[in-house]
Design brief:
Strands 1-2-3-4-5-6-7-10 form an 8-stranded parallel β-barrel. Strands 8-9 form a two-stranded antiparallel ribbon. The protein is 38% helix and 14% strand. It is of the alpha/beta class and 291 residues long.
Length: 291
């Protein structure tokens, strides 16, 4: 079996360069980070020394894959022209930071359309294309959503259409991140129809475009349209979908990131979730006495 590209979203408190050491501490080979505060518009100052420290730390800690996640305030499907332009500017800055930091992928939530779905898809696609044209390097990974409110991207057809609306050659830099909690909340039954869900994904989107998986169990039932993550194997999905993902050769080269609850001890809980997933991959039963 090839080396697992498995990790977690970790904190960058104290500096971006500390993320790699935190990833290594939990036994990760991959990591996801925010390159800025996800809940603020303010853009951070990123000098050459900070960039060098980050790049060196990734290498020193043996990470095989790094992805960023864009800020929560960004809404590239917004019908409000002021918010749309501000979101485009912020997303472009995210791509610019990732280009400097050597981060090849930016996970991005499709926006909320508020008015008309097709119009929202077109605004979202236009924003992605504008930013990809402006910044060379990083690819974007459009994340599946749970379908809360007017969020785009909860149906596979919407995701495929969003990518098709981006013209070549920029479309080549557009892939996808599938979140298991979001897919299940959107009504795709990974627990009871695992093969059927991925067959539908392949037919509509194409498995070749899947570059990242967010491995999260769901606190709420199938089709709830609610985005609430649970620990692996302890939510509504249960262990079987995760066991199958970890053993499915089609997903060997797909980056796998957990965003499971961190409780009062992030290191402990991330470490035990990753240990559990590695046990699934190796055909072992995870210990009942995980520390």
């Amino acid at each position: 079996m090839s080396q697992l590209l498995l990790g977690a979203h970790v904190s960058v408190a104290g500096g971006l360069h500390l993320a790699a050491a935190r990833a290594r501490e939990i036994g990760a080979t991959a990591v996801q980070v925010f390159t800025k505060s996800p809940n603020q518009w303010r853009e951070p100052k990123l000098d050459d020394a900070a960039v060098a420290r980050f790049r060196e730390s990734v290498k020193a800690n043996g990470l095989l894959a790094v992805v960023s996640h864009d800020a929560y305030l960004i809404n590239l499907a917004s019908p409000d022209p002021v918010l749309w332009r501000r979101s485009v500017a912020a997303f472009r800055k995210e791509l610019e930071r990732c280009s400097r930091l050597g981060i090849p992928y930016v996970v991005t939530h499709p926006g909320n359309f508020h008015d008309d779905l097709e119009a929202g898809l077109r605004r979202n696609a236009a924003a992605y294309q504008r930013c990809l044209q402006a910044v060379a390097g990083p690819s974007i990974l459009i994340e599946t959503t749970a379908g809360t409110g007017t969020a785009l991207g909860w149906r596979f057809e919407e995701l495929a259409r969003l990518r098709r609306l981006i013209r070549e050659p920029w479309r080549r830099r557009v892939g996808f991140c599938a979140d298991t909690c979001h897919i299940y909340a959107a009504g795709y039954d990974l627990a009871r129809d695992f093969d059927g869900v991925w067959k539908e994904w392949d037919r509509i989107i194409g498995l070749r475009h899947l570059r990242c998986l967010h491995l999260n169990d769901s606190r709420y039932p199938l089709g709830s349209r609610r985005d609430r993550h649970a620990w692996i194997g302890e939510g509504e999905l249960g262990p079987e979908p995760f066991r199958r993902i970890m053993r499915d050769r089609r997903f060997d080269s797909v980056i796998k990131i957990i965003e499971t609850p961190k409780g009062d001890d992030p290191v402990r809980h991330d470490r035990r979730m990753l240990r559990r997933l590695r046990a699934y991959a190796s055909n072992r039963r995870p210990s009942r006495k995980e520390p």
